[in-house]
Amino acid sequence: MNEQLSILKGIHPGQFLDRELRHRGLKSKELALAVGEHPQTLSAIIRGKRAMNTPLSLRIERNLQLDEGLLMQLQIFFEIEQEKRKQASLHRPNLGKFRPALFWDTTIERIDWINNRRYAIQRIFERGTESEILETIRFYGVDTIRDTLSECDSMYSASLQENISKYLCHA
């Protein structure tokens, strides 16, 4: 179970349940009736609109012969992942200082500024305005930016090199 759980960590238990039902050729309504639950409740869980609860998870696991506790462990890991995303959204630069055109290939609100710092720093130092670069320096700090840019294995563009020397060499 540990190997299966590590693969599924972070997904909603309803998503796992949906896949399991499709694999077995069962309808959610059939399972709901078999475990004594309202079909709407199970449908909401499968769509990720509602959390799994312990009594229901035990009945479903017994009915589908799944490892006991699997669905609740998935629920807990899902909630942990949601909380980590929520906390990460609090730790981001002032997005009002960035032009949407700077990140034309993505939605700026969805950028994970910690895990994608290399991409963000390189993009901003290559194509950003002075205020965008200064906000990046304020958010990450000079040392983090230097370390991150030193990890880049690609050749720097002329504008990136110019901004590195202008904003980082004298800081």
Write the layout of secondary structure elements.
Blueprint: H1 2-8, H2 13-24, H3 28-34, H4 39-46, H5 54-64, H6 70-90, H7 117-127, H8 130-140, H9 142-151, H10 158-167
Helix pairs in contact: 2-4, 2-6, 3-4, 7-9, 7-10
Give a verbal description of the structure.
The protein has 171 residues and is mostly helical. Helices cover 63% and strands 0% of the residues. It has two domains: 2-89, Orthogonal Bundle (434 Repressor (Amino-terminal Domain)); 95-167, no CATH class. The protein is built from ten helices and no strands. α7 crosses α9 (142-151). It is elongated and about 70 Å long. The relative contact order is 0.09.
Q: State the end-to-end distance.
A: 51 Å
What is the H-and-E element order? HHHHHHHHHH
Overall CATH class of the largest domain = Mainly Alpha
CATH-derived topology of the largest domain: 434 Repressor (Amino-terminal Domain)
DSSP summary: helix tally: 10
Residue runs with pLDDT of under 50 for 5 or more positions: none
Overall shape: elongated
The overall pLDDT average reads 89
